[in-house]
Amino acid sequence: MLADKIRQLRKGNFIIQVEFARRSGHPVSTIHEIENGDNQNPGFFTLGDIAQVLGVSLDELYSACKKV
User: Fold this and answer.
1) Fewer CB within 10 Å, N side or C side of the chain?
2) Are 30 and 21 contacting, i.e. CB atoms less than 8 angstroms apart?
3) Quick one: 24 exposed, middle or buried, by C-beta within 10 A (0-12, 13-18, 19+)?
């Protein structure tokens, strides 16, 4: 699941949600909703920003969705 993959990568990089939100340029509430699965369809540019902060490609993030 995308939410789990993002949370796993963020925690693996030892980044707290507040810092992650700051780096991505998105509100903490948005990051929280994505990681909790409340927002199951985040926008393309939002995912691009998240991937950049995590140091991964969009393909890597989307691969988590395909394994469901």
Assistant:
1) C
2) yes
3) buried
- Find out whether 25 and 43 touch, Cβ atoms under 8 Å: no
Q: What is the pTM of this model?
A: 0.87
Tokens 């691009």, located at residue: 48
- Cα–Cα distance for residue pair 35/2, rounded to 1 Å: 8
Domain edges within the chain: 2-66
Identity of the amino acid at 18: V
Question: Which homologous superfamily does the CATH classification assign to the domain defined by 2-66?
Answer: lambda repressor-like DNA-binding domains (1.10.260.40)
Query: Can you tell me the distance from the alpha carbon of 65 to that of 16, in angstroms, rounded to the nearest whole number?
Result: 23
Nearest CA among 1, 3, 14 for reference residue 50: 3
